[in-house]
Amino acid sequence: MTPDQTNLLQGTLDMMILKSLALDQMHGLGISRRIEQLTKGTFQVKPGSLFPSLHRMEEEGWLVSSWGESENNRRAKFYRLTKAGRRQLDSETQRWGRISLAIARALEAS
Amino acid sequence: MPTLSRMKNFFRNIFAKRRNDGELDDEVHSYVDLLAEEKMRAGMNPEQARRAARIELGGVEQVKEQVREARAGAWLDTVIQDIRYGLRILRKSPGFTTVAVLILALGIGANTAIFSMINGLMLHTLPVRDPGRLVELLHHYPGEPEPGFNGFSWDAYQITRDNNRVFSDLIVGSMNFFTVRADKLQPQAVFGGNVGGTFFQALGLRAAAGRLIGPEDVHMGYHAPVAVVSWSFWKSRFDLDPGIVGKKIIVDDAPVTIIGVAQRGFYGLSEQAQQDIWLPISLGPSPSWGFALLGRLKPGVSIEQARAEMAVLFQRVVDAPDAGPFVRGMQLRIEPAGDGLSTPLRETLHTPLIVLMAMVALLLLLACANLAGLLLARAASRQHEMAVRVCLGARRGRLIRQTLTESWLLSMTGSALGISLAYFGTRGLIRIFASGREIAGLPVHFESLSNPDWRVLLFTGAIALAAAMLFGAVPATSAFRPIPAQALQQAARIGESKSQRLFGKSLVVSQVALSVVLLTSALLFVGYLSHLRSLNPGFRRDHLLLVTLDTAHSGYNAAQFARQSEQLVARLEAIPGVKSAALSTMSPMQGPGASAFAFAEGHSDYQHNVSINDVAPHYFETYDTPLLAGRYFSADDQGKPLVAIMNQVAARDCFGNENPIGKHLTLSHITLTKGEITYEVVGVVGDAKYNDIQQPAPPTVYGDFVQEEFVGSQLAVRTSIAPDAVAGVVRETESAVLKTVPIVRIMTMNEQIDASIVPERLAATLSAWFGALGALLAAIGLYGLLAYTVTQRTHEIGVRMALGATRRDVMRMVLRDALWTVSAGFALGTPLAFWAKSAIASLIRDLPAKSPVSVVFGGAVMIALCLVAAYIPAHRAMRLDPMIALRHE
To answer: What is the pTM (predicted TM-score) of this model?
Structure first.
């Protein structure tokens, strides 16, 4: 069993973060807000889970970070997808598609 | 994820921790700023916005902690944190830490020292190819003590080599001392051997330089004499000079060329006797029965098959027409030899070392119980701290890990100190060894004793860890206990639970029991040693000075030497304080000497194994050995038929109840190739011990060394004052009279006897130390327990005194407590001590194990020591002022 399957929520959060960074680089608060927006408010990402996730994925080599300026000229740390991160997003998306399909079928079956 | 980047992260997280943390801090704070700004845009004032942002974040430190836990190497981080915290805690109570580390260092150091001796003497295998297939050949007579003797004739070697089908190689060698000199190398005695042509090749040894001895070198013999030296000889004498190959040296007055250096770490076939030089077997002395044989079993051949076949084959050696009379009845044994040839050293040290190992294991157990007691008291005083940490959210598992880390830190520090203690301890042990005589002519291989190798370090690490587990379990389990709310109140006195108090007592009880066992064993050994020292060896052992001479290069023939020595004895006897002096070829207790087979006149079908000593007139007077019948040697014997004097055992062995005076005795020499010689018996003297003070005196036949044209190298001087006082004058006189005969050493007879009982002295000295240490630890343990109890009960004692208890009552109360504890320990320890005594007695012959004296004495010492230890806290309890004690909270 891979860790991804046992910890679905963790994997889901990772996937959402990767997805939110798919278009452009973003700082922590921006990622939170983007995920809220993408899920129409279903997911509210707290800093206590956001930051550990970001740092872990950076260590995995899916993200890189750099200090920059926010839209209001404040110092902030920005995260951006790497090639490996993009690959990871693709495979996560496929996997998620398979799982959600399987679960949907299982629930439909009587 | 690629392993490389994982490792990079791991190291960055550990080593760039501060920078990482600073950056994380910046990041979280910038998040709060951005969030606050967002809220201000939504209409909050700056203060409200910051507050709301902080609440939403949920604590900067908590977020940072969560990130740190997600990072690679987070576990190591907590370990380091635990270690740091542990170090801080230990530093905060330096008294406790010092005592604990010292106790552990002594316990672990003693174990390491004994184990490194066992390791050096017994656990090594030979550094040769496939040592497991090596076996050694031993000859013995039926009914003789095991294991036999690895010495064979050249004929026996040839018959075995040419006819066996079980050995792929038969390795032959002999052990000898050589006098080696070279330019820039003083003449010195070097232990080594003569080896057969296949010796090095069959053992699979490589040359560290040059080449090793091969069949062609044996074939060439004196036409091209060669030698191979050991690596340590190369290093110590030639400083690893690569020019050693081809160098000419003088071995036993003959020039020899060094052709190579043996593989590093190879010191010959015995792990206990270091050999440094090897010559082809065709060079040097050719002892008639002095060739050691070692076989390498063919693949698929078991040792039983080899025994079966060789037993038949060896019968041909025994039945050979020209075999000497002493070969009659000889049998062959075959034993595994992967750890080297069996030597008397290993046999004699094996049992004492095993016993000592058991003692130090007990000592360590005792030290652990002692420490557990200390930690128990500490855990009670740290309940408040633990309670606070639990309330702040520490998980129980984390607390247990923390306390275990502290124990582990103590144990590691203790063992680091212990290893250095063991190093010095081993030096001391080697000094005891070095004071001993060469055991069976073999110098002890000190190098393997003094260097702790990986096995010793592994052993020490393992016992340190085991010790940490043992004594660390106590505070760790106390972290399991539910923490009462009152533990949080700073001032509250936290009482011990009944089970805790009982546990603390039982720790002391077990320490007392263990130290009774240790003391009993120690007293057994010490008593045995003093018994050995008081034994009557058959001569007067005090006031006797022994001088060993090196007569090998004197240039005198026997007649000249006899004249010179007569003059020497006359001048020595003129020294004030000297009563008499005499020369002999052997001195008593010097070690095993020559032996022969004796055939008595009228009983010539029986052969008797006897020891031989050739002595000068006045020998028996000098040693104070009584004459029982006949006469001593006299000057009138010169030029007449050979005469001999027998000791009582030899006379009874050879002649039964007949009067041996005037009868004839024929000796067939084994070690001295003199053939058969017949003597007339002129006297019978009392028995005297020669080799082993613990054994009955051997049957001995004395010859007159002047008559036999021997040169005596052992000079005995009987004094009326302390023998050391005349040593200087004796030395001067000797070098004035015998100018070409240097003195090898001067020692008293008591020192020589001490040198013959090294294992017994070792056991007595060490066990005395261990016993004393154990008793001291137990006393300290009891003191600690009582002192702690008195402090805990201060309030109670105040109440008792206020209610009318006298000071004597209080003191009696504390002492009664102590006495109960000690008595329980004694009751538990006594059967254990008796059991240990009989176990030791079954291992070591004629130990006075029957008598209960040592147990009683050990118990008495323990009780006395404990009462002293108990007196201090009892006295303090007695002196308490009830008013102050009542207010004590």
So the answer is: 0.73
